[in-house]
Structures are given as structure tokens and as C-alpha cells.
Amino acid sequence: MSQRVKQTVKPNADAESTSAGRRPPSVLFLYVLQAFLGLGAIAGGVMLIIDPSGSLMGMPADTVLKRSPFSDFLFPGIILLAVFGLFPLLVLYGMVKRPRWAWADALTPFKELHSTWTLSLYVGFGQIIWIMVETYIMNAVSLVHVFYMSLGLLIQIVTLLPSVQRFFLLPPGRGFHTADDQSMRAASR
């Protein structure tokens, strides 16, 4: 286990039972946050794809997108739908079912935790960056921006809670996927 995770996650007697079935309230709350973000972004993305002018959402493209490289909301709607709609729901599925995804394992530096734990962090980072870019392009900040920026931050905070990290710890022997990782683990003992 890496030093960073060891310092924040101290395995306890409940670690096996938590991983085996019972989900702590903090994990359930993380599920709700991911679902809320995903479903909301799907709705927003679909509305922007259906009406790229933005009038359906009360955002005229000619004024809102003045500082952007886009002339309408079609491409931002596709990004919103795919990256912040479908992807958080995929991460939610992964957190609930815990499949082994090689592509996700390759993206995580935390080999002792299930890869969807890291993907959850990435969703939070992405949400914060998306809102920062959006407020820059719009040259304005509204209550909706503050809400969704806070949602991204909250996803990160909840993901980093020790109880959530404990829940996503992989069983011994499953946390390191390559021979190099196993030799590093043996060397750190």
C-alpha cells in the first residue's frame, strides 16, 4: 500500500465486512452525487444538442459564447452529455459492481484501491475544470456555477474520506497488477 493511502486509511476490523457487502453511508452519498451529476448533465447535454442555439435553456449562443471557439452549443452539449453525463454513470456502475476494467486500471496511480475510486476523483476534478472554463468563456458567475463547482468539490471530498477509501481497498494480492508493482510492494516491506 502506498504511503499516501497508508496515512489516511487505517484498515480496521470491519474492513473485510465493509468490502464484502455493507456500504458505509459515505459511499452511498458518493453514489447519489455521481448519479445527480450524471443525470443532470445528460438532461443539459440533450437540451443543448436538440437546440444548439441555447434558447431552450435561456442562453443565447451569440452572447454567451462570445469568448468561446464555438458558434453554438452543439459541441459543448456533446461534451456535457458524454463526459459529465454518461461517464459519471459509468463510474457509478463501476463503484457498485466493481468490475475489473484494464483501461481504468491503467489510469490509476493508486493500485491498492479499485480503479473506480480514482475515476471518481477524476470526475470531481473534471467538473471543477469544466465550470472554471465555462465561467471564463461566459465572463460571468451565476448561482448554478457555484452549485456545480461545489458539487465537483464535494465529489472529491467524499471520495477522499477514509471510510470511502477503506471500502474501495482491493483484497490483498489483487491491488498490484504487474510484476513491477509486485516487486515494488515487496521492496517496500
CA-atom Rg in angstroms: 19 Å
Number of helices: 10
What portion of residues belong to β-strands?
under 5%
Structural class by helix and strand composition: mainly alpha
Q: Would you tell me the overall average pLDDT? A: 86
- Summarize the biggest pleated sheet: none
Quick one: how many beta strands? Answer: 0
Instruction: Name the poorly predicted regions.
Output: 12-19, 177-189
Features:
mainly alpha; 10 helices; 69% helix; elongated; disordered C terminus
Description:
This protein has 189 residues and is an all-alpha fold. It has helices spanning 3-8, 15-20, 25-50, 61-64, 74-97, 102-107, 115-138, 143-160, 162-167, 179-188. The termini are close together.
